[in-house]
Specification:
CATH class of chain A: Mainly Alpha
Oligomer: heterodimer
Distance between the termini of chain A: 39 Å
Strand content of chain B: under 5%
Order of helices and strands of chain B: HHEEHHHHHHHHHHHHHHHHHHHH
Strand content of chain A: under 5%
CATH topology of chain A: Helix Hairpins
Strand order of the largest sheet of chain B: 1-2
Number of helices of chain A: 4
Number of helices of chain B: 22
Radius of gyration of chain B: 24 Å
Number of strands of chain A: 0
Shape of chain A: elongated
Distance between the termini of chain B: 21 Å
Largest interface: A-B, 51 and 48 residues
Structural class of chain B: mainly alpha
C-alpha cells in the first residue's frame, strides 16, 4: 500500500515535471494536470494511510481515518479542476490569436515563426 | 467577537455577485457599485485598523467553531495594516480604470476586480494555512481574468505563462501544506506554532522540508530570484489598472513570509536553523540586483516598471531576511511605499502609452505628448520615489533598510547592493524620462535633417483631448506617497509596534486558541474525541471537514 501510493506520487510528479518543461501549451497543461493528480494523492496520504476505516465518529468503532485530508483533497480537486479549465481556455485563446502555442517569451520566437510555414501545427499535429 | 472582521471578505464577494447578476448590462451602475464598494471597504478597513492599532487581537470564528477545528480570521496590527493598504490602493486604481475607460474594454472588469479584492483581503485576514491557499486561489483566478482583460495576442500569451506559472506555484503550495499537516496534524497557524515548537529535534526532517517548500511558494508570489520569471511579461502586458492592483499581489507573498516565519517558524526555532535564514538574504540581494539591471536594460517603459517591481521586492526582502524587529518594520514601510509607487508608475506608463500613439511604450524618439508638463512632473515624482532619492518615501524606506542591516553579517553586501542598484535605477528612469519627455522633438530618422518642419512636430497634436479623471487618480497616488513621506515618523512608530507584536506571538496564539466557540462534544468536551470511548454521537462532528 505504502509502496503503491508513494510510487504513484513519485511517478506522477516526475512525469508532470517532464511535461511542464516542454515548450508548447498542450504538453504543459497535461503536465500540470499530472502534478495536480500527484498532489491530490499526496494530500490524501498526509493523514496517514488507513484502509477500511470510517472518517466519521460512530458507536462501537475505535479506529478512524483522518477526515481532514479528505476535505482538503476535495477542495484541491475542485480548485485544480477549475484552474485547468481556465488555463485551457486562455491557452486556446492565445493559440488562436498568436497562431502558435509556445509557452515562453514571444520575442524569442519571432524569427522562428517566419521560417515555419505551418506555425499552427504545434503539438496538435 | 466583532463581525466586522469578515466584512472585507464578504462585501466584495457580494458586490461582485450583484454586479454580475444585476448590473451586467448597465455600465454606470456597475461603476457606481464598484466604487461604492471600494469606499465602504476603505471605511471598514480604517475601522479595523483603528481597532487593532491599540494592540488588540480580534479573532473571528467562521461558523462559530472553536479553534483549531474551525477556520479563524485574525485581525492584528499586520493584517489590518495590509487590509488598509489594499483598500487605499483600490480607490485610485478603480478611479483610473473608470476614467480611462479600461473597464469597458472587456467584460466583467468590476466583478473580477471585486473578487480580486476579496481574495487579497481574505489572504491577509485568515489565520489558517489551508484557508490561505484557498484565498490565494480566489485572488489568482480573479487575476487570470483581469490579466487578459481586453484581449490581444501578446496579453493572452503572457496570460498563459502567468496562469501556468501560478498553477505550478499552487501545486507546490499544496505539497507544502500536505507535508505540514502530515508532520503536525493541524493547519491553524496559531496551533501550528505550538506544535512545531514541540517537535523533537530527532524527528525534524519533514518539518524542515515543509518550511522550505512553503517559503518557495511565497517566494514565487513575491518574485524572488530565481522564481521571478513570470513577473516582467505578466505585469507589462496586463491592463494598466490591473498591473497597478497587482502591485499589492507581490506583497501578499511578502506578507505570508512575514506571518509564517515569525509565527510558525520563528527565527530562533532550533528545527529550522541553517535553512532559509542562510539563503534568503543572498537571494533577495540578487533579486534587487537583477531587477534594477532589468530597469537599465529594457527598451520598453512598461517592462522597466515591471523590473522595478522585482527590484523593490528584492529590497523589501533584504530588509525582511534578517528577521529582526527593525528589519520587519523597515520591510513594512518599504511595502507601503513600493505598492503606491509602482501603482502610480504603471498608471503613468499607460497614460504615456495612450498619448504617444505609435511609439507607445518603446523608448524611441517620438512627437511630444499632450499635457506633457503635468505627466512629466508626476513621472518625475514617482520615479524619484521608486529610485529612493530624497525627498520622497523611497529614500526613507531605503534609509530604514540600511539602518536595519547593521549588525547582520552581510552588512557590507547589503549596503553595496542597495546603493549600487539605486544608481542603476536612477540611470534607468532618467534615461526613460528624458527619452519620453525631453528628446521628443523629432520623428525617428529625421534627427539630422535641417529642412524638417520642426515647428509643427514640436507641438503635440492639438486634437488630443484627455479626460481628467485618470490624472486625478495618479495624482491621488502621488499625494499618498507624499503623505507617507511626511508622516514617516508616526508611521514608523506604528510599524515598530506591528513588528514587536509579531515577535511576541504569545498574545496572538492565546487569542486564537482561547477563543470560545462550538466544540465537538463526542467523547468529552475537550474536542479531541478521536478515541471513540464515549458512547453518544454528536451532529457537530462533521463540521470540521465541512469547514475546510
Amino acid at each position: 500500500m505504502e509502496l503503491l501510493v508513494a510510487s504513484a506520487v513519485g511517478i506522477l510528479t516526475a512525469a508532470g515535471i517532464y511535461m511542464v518543461l516542454r515548450l508548447r501549451t498542450f504538453p504543459v497543461i497535461i503536465g500540470v494536470s499530472l502534478l495536480t493528480y500527484a498532489v491530490n494523492i499526496f494530500l490524501f496520504a498526509s493523514g496517514r494511510l488507513a484502509t477500511d476505516m470510517p472518517p466519521i465518529l460512530r458507536d462501537g468503532v475505535d479506529a478512524y481515518t483522518d477526515p481532514l485530508p479528505q476535505a482538503l483533497v476535495l477542495t484541491a480537486i475542485v480548485i485544480s479542476f477549475g484552474m485547468t479549465a481556465v488555463v485551457v481556455i486562455i491557452a486556446l485563446g492565445a493559440w488562436l490569436s498568436c497562431s502558435d502555442d509556445y509557452v515562453d517569451d514571444p520575442e524569442l520566437h519571432s524569427g522562428q515563426q517566419a521560417a515555419d510555414p505551418n506555425p499552427r501545427g504545434g503539438s496538435f499535429r | 467577537m466583532t463581525h466586522w472582521i469578515i466584512a472585507p471578505v464578504v462585501l466584495p464577494a457580494m458586490l461582485a455577485a450583484i454586479i454580475i447578476l444585476a448590473a451586467r448590462f448597465h455600465q454606470n451602475l456597475a461603476r457606481v457599485f464598484s466604487m461604492a464598494g471600494c469606499v465602504a471597504l476603505l471605511l471598514v478597513a480604517s475601522g479595523l485598523f483603528w481597532r487593532a492599532s491599540g494592540g488588540q487581537i480580534d479573532v473571528y470564528l467562521l461558523g462559530n467553531w472553536s479553534p483549531p477545528f474551525g477556520i479563524v480570521l485574525v485581525a492584528d496590527r499586520l493584517s489590518t495594516l495590509m487590509v488598509l493598504l489594499t483598500s487605499v490602493l483600490a480607490i485610485p486604481v478603480l478611479l483610473y480604470a473608470i476614467g480611462s475607460g479600461w473597464d469597458m474594454r472587456g467584460r466583467h472588469f468590476h466583478a473580477l476586480f471585486q473578487f480580486q479584492l476579496m481574495g487579497i483581503m481574505g489572504a491577509f485576514l485568515t489565520g489558517d494555512a489551508f484557508n490561505l491557499f484557498v484565498f490565494f486561489e480566489v485572488l489568482l483566478i480573479a487575476s487570470y481574468g483581469l490579466m487578459i482583460h481586453g484581449g490581444g495576442a501578446p496579453r493572452l500569451r503572457a496570460g498563459t505563462q502567468y496562469v501556468l506559472y501560478n498553477l505550478l506555484g499552487s501545486t507546490l503550495f499544496l505539497f507544502a501544506l500536505g507535508t505540514l499537516y502530515a508532520e503536525t496534524g493541524t493547519l491553524n497557524m496559531a496551533d501550528l506554532a505550538g506544535r512545531v515548537a514541540a517537535i523533537e529535534p530527532g524527528a525534524d526532517a519533514g518539518i524542515r522540508v515543509a518550511s522550505v517548500l512553503l517559503l518557495l511558494v511565497f517566494a514565487v508570489k513575491a518574485a524572488v530570484l530565481p522564481l521571478h520569471f513570470w513577473l516582467p511579461a505578466s505585469y507589462a502586458e496586463a491592463p494598466a489598472p490591473v498591473a497597478a492592483l497587482f502591485a499589492i499581489m507581490t506583497k501578499v507573498g511578502a506578507y505570508s513570509i512575514i506571518r509564517m516565519y515569525t509565527l510558525v517558524f520563528p527565527p530562533d526555532l532550533e528545527l529550522t536553523q541553517g535553512l532559509f535564514g542562510t539563503w534568503l538574504l543572498p537571494a533577495a540581494l540578487a533579486t534587487t540586483a537583477i531587477g534594477m539591471i532589468g530597469v537599465l536594460g529594457t527598451q520598453r517603459i512598461d517592462r522597466m516598471v515591471a523590473f522595478s517591481v522585482i527590484g523593490s521586492m528584492g529590497m523589501l526582502l533584504v530588509a525582511l531576511a534578517g528577521f529582526s524587529e527593525a528589519g520587519i518594520a523597515a520591510a513594512l514601510y518599504y511595502a507601503l511605499h513600493s505598492t503606491l509607487a509602482t501603482a502610480a508608475l504603471f498608471l503613468l506608463v499607460d497614460v504615456i502609452r495612450d498619448r504617444r500613439k505609435d511609439a507607445g511604450v518603446h523608448l524611441v524618439d517620438a512627437r511630444p505628448i499632450g499635457g506633457a508638463s503635468l505627466i512629466a512632473g508626476m513621472f518625475f515624482a514617482a520615479a524619484i520615489a521608486m529610485c529612493g532619492m530624497p525627498p520622497l518615501s523611497g529614500f526613507v524606506g531605503k534609509l530604514l533598510v540600511l539602518d536595519a542591516s547593521f549588525g547582520t553579517p552581510l552588512v557590507v553586501w547589503i549596503w553595496s547592493v542597495v546603493l549600487g542598484t539605486s544608481l542603476l535605477c536612477i540611470v534607468g528612469f532618467a534615461r526613460a524620462g528624458s527619452t519620453v519627455f525631453w528628446k521628443c522633438h523629432q520623428e525617428p530618422g529625421e534627427r539630422n535633417d535641417p529642412h524638417t518642419e520642426t515647428d509643427a512636430r514640436n507641438k503635440p497634436d492639438p486634437d488630443d483631448q484627455h479626460p481628467a479623471t485618470p490624472v486625478v487618480a495618479i495624482g491621488g497616488l502621488i499625494a499618498l506617497i507624499l503623505a507617507i513621506t511626511v508622516l514617516a515618523g508616526p508611521i514608523n512608530r506604528m510599524l515598530a509596534a506591528t513588528a514587536s507584536q509579531l515577535f511576541s506571538p504569545t498574545p496572538y496564539i492565546s487569542a486564537v486558541m482561547g477563543a470560545q466557540g462550538k466544540v465537538i462534544t463526542y467523547g468529552g468536551s475537550d474536542g479531541y474525541a478521536q478515541d471513540g470511548a464515549s458512547d453518544h454521537a454528536d451532529d457537530g462532528t462533521e463540521g470540521e471537514g465541512e469547514a475546510h
